[in-house]
Amino acid sequence: MGLRIVIAADPAGVDYKEAVKADLEADPRVEQVIDAGCAPGETPLYPSIAFPAATMIAQGQADRGIFFCGTGMGMAISANKVPGVRASTAHDSFSVERLIMSNDAHVLCLGQRVIGRELARRLASEFLGYTFDPASHSKANIDLIIEHEGRADSRAAH
Predict the structure, then answer these.
(1) Active site includes 109?
(2) Crossing angle between the packed helical segments 14-26 and 117-128, to the nearest 10 degrees
(3) Domain span including residue 82
(4) Would you place residue 157 in the very low, low, confident or very high pLDDT band (cuts 50, 70, 90)?
(5) Contact, 49 vs 68, CB < 8 A?
(6) pLDDT at position 92, please?
(7) CATH of the domain at 147
(8) Which residue from 3, 45, 57, 94 puts its CA 20 to 30 A from 35's CA?
């Protein structure tokens, strides 16, 4: 079974989203590409795109996400506000590797105004190739993050 990838962008990242979407649709590792917006010509704010796209991951409707904006930062900050989702900007191969291998992240965020299109395409492809090893020493860090998030959720509910 292949990966289900949600792809999303605000107006500052929509060109790269369209290029990477085409790559993902042709990638044999990908079972489904879910386009969560925006489309060329639309002008939504990045949180209004990132929140529902990240929620798809949190609810199990997608396995991972690749989000774009001008820097990648706004989408990462927004996606991280969705409980159960870990997102980060990464603009080099080592960081993309560590995003999965050290952080078991769900979302790669890329900046259209920061890196070139071909690098964005390569990093998106690399992101799909890594799998977190739950036997790694990084698992303890992930467990602490999840535990803290659970405590924060229970405090917010009261």
Answers:
(1) no
(2) 40
(3) 3-157
(4) low
(5) no
(6) 98
(7) 3.40.1400.10
(8) 94
